[in-house]
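Example 3.2
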Amino acid sequence: MADGTDDLAERIARIEARDEIRELISRYAHGLDLPDRDIFTSVWAEDAVYKVDEPFGETVGVEAIGAAWDSFHAFFPYQYHHTMNVVIDGPHGDKASATSFVLVTGSDREGTAWVASCTYFDDFERIGGKWLFKRRYDKINYMTPWLQPWDGLTKEQRIFVDPAYFEKMLKLA
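Structure, written as tokens:
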């Protein structure tokens, strides 16, 4: 239309698609963190590819991706994914891609706390009107244990803030 209505409708559709993709990325994290296997497996296309750097590897298909979830939670029962800096390319028709970063905290089954930094490289496809992961590559930038297990520590030991340190830093500012 000459009045720009089509352009506005296209722009709104693009904004809505990008918001649905951001929601999808968040549901992935919720599936890991709650933990909720059903949420986690609901974000994948049937033939999706999920690759996580060693020692985890690559899985194909929702059933295998669900089995990967089982393995993650057997080793890391507590996980907290803080996804940020999401940049979406697209959508281009029914396809889009994104790159984002995640800081993961949690603990393993022995109570040792871990922290990891990862970069996500994602491909999405709209299937049946719903955006799904077609491929996710989880590049592990680093993954390291903390020196002391948090399990059994008091709240004061787990959450330590040295007031003298912050006073010093404020004076430097």
